[in-house]
Write a structure and sequence with these properties.
Blueprint lengths: L20 H7 L4 E3 L5 E5 L2 E3 L3 H7 L7 E5 L5 H12 L11 H4 L2 H4 L3 H5 L16 E4 L8 H5 L4 E6 L2 H15 L7 H9 L8 H14 L4 E5 H6 L1 H11 L6 H6 L1 H8 L2 H6 L1 H5 L26 H15 L7
Parallel strand pairs: 4-5, 4-6, 6-7
Antiparallel strand pairs: 1-2, 2-3
The structure holds adenosine-3'-5'-diphosphate (A3P).
Adenosine-3'-5'-diphosphate binds next to helix 3, helix 8 and helix 15.
């Protein structure tokens, strides 16, 4: 598995020497734990995650109609990016053989704020971004730039996924990213359950956005990977309305909804040459973002007691919230 990554790790997986003095000074004060692929995870504002977001918090300039796609890692980010990009820019980029997704991985089209745009101490130039701008992040809401946290105009779409599938997907993914051998499942299972995973604790991440979506449904749309699999037509229509670009009668009649769903499906995207053999600018191979794309694959990996342990944590953490995943 480890042979699937380039010899030089992406910037956001590199260690302290790639960081500014300011970041290093802050990091030196933070509690650390062993990382899943890079050597450390740092705890910042109650969450474990890689620290490049600090620069983004400082420099990001919000525009009112900005769209933020938020997920905990391995919850379906790649799929969400493809769907929202295709949906929001469907007039500018109709589905043809020249559509940007044919030759670009979704992560290149909708870049992460913290692991792509603000890495390497750069202040990104957004002038070539189409409007509305679409960004993605794994950041907890409390770590987003304050302007985003306070804005009532920007839109946040949060996609969550069953934690057992997230854990299994994360285990596969991080083993592919590791340069030195693989983590045993047992080794990282306890970390995940204790909340020590990138941007974790997983449950706190989900719950924060769930609560925000309840408080302000016009600003935060919360939905589930499993529902998207089960009733994709309903959810993509909801997504289009939320983003202020509902399907017209003509689009409905022409079958555009199904066309977008098929175009962004696991089968279609994973079979594209760019996703079979291409790499992100960070050097990570595009194919690592496409594994099975199904619901319930955890059954093939987790012992009963592991599944029960995750279920118990989920029940306790979400108790009283109304959220069931
Ligand atoms: P599995 O490892 O369970 O297969 P992320 O995009 O957040 O990194 O999540 C990756 C997970 O989403 C992987 O799950 C991957 O296979 C799945 N995935 C990627 N593209 C998908 C798509 N178009 N439809 C459904 N699932 C997809």
């Amino acid at each position: 598995m480890s042979s699937e990554i380039s010899s030089s790790p992406p910037k956001y997986l590199q260690e302290e020497e790639a960081l500014t003095q300011e970041c290093n000074a802050l990091i030196s004060t933070l509690p650390t734990r062993k990382g899943w692929w890079a050597s450390h995870l740092y705890q910042y504002q109650g969450f474990w995650y890689l620290q490049a977001l600090i620069s983004c918090r400082k420099h990001f300039q919000l525009q009112n109609c900005d769209i933020f796609l938020v997920t905990s890692p391995k919850s379906g980010t790649t799929w969400l990016k493809a769907l929202v990009f295709t949906l929001a820019y469907r007039t500018k980029y109709p589905i043809t053989k020249n559509h940007p997704l044919i030759n670009n991985n979704p992560h290149d089209l909708v870049p992460f704020l913290e692991t792509r745009l603000y890495v390497d101490n750069q202040i990104p130039d957004f002038s070539s971004f189409p409007h509305p701008r679409i960004f993605s992040t794994h950041s907890p809401h409390t770590s987003l730039p304050e302007t985003v946290q306070k804005s009532s105009n920007c839109k946040i779409v949060y996609l969550c996924r069953n934690p057992k599938d997230v854990f299994v997907s994360l285990w596969h993914f991080t083993n592919k990213l590791r340069l030195n051998g693989t983590n045993s499942m047992e080794e990282v299972f306890d970390s995940f359950c204790q909340g020590v995973s990138g941007y974790g604790p997983f449950w706190d991440h989900v719950l924060e956005y769930w609560n925000l979506s309840k408080e302000n449904p016009d600003r935060v749309l919360f939905f589930k990977f499993e529902d998207l699999k089960e009733k994709p037509g309903l959810l993509i229509r909801r997504l289009a309305e939320f983003l202020g670009c509902p399907f017209s009668a003509g689009e409905e009649e022409s079958g555009l909804v199904d066309e977008i769903l098929k175009f962004c499906s696991f089968e279609n995207l994973s079979a594209l040459e760019i996703n079979k053999n291409g790499k992100l600018s960070s050097g990570v191979e595009n194919k690592v973002f496409f594994r099975q794309g199904v619901v319930g694959d955890w059954r093939n990996y987790l012992a009963n007691e592991m599944a029960e342990k995750i279920d118990k944590i989920t029940e306790e953490k979400f108790n009283g919230s109304g959220l069931i995943i």
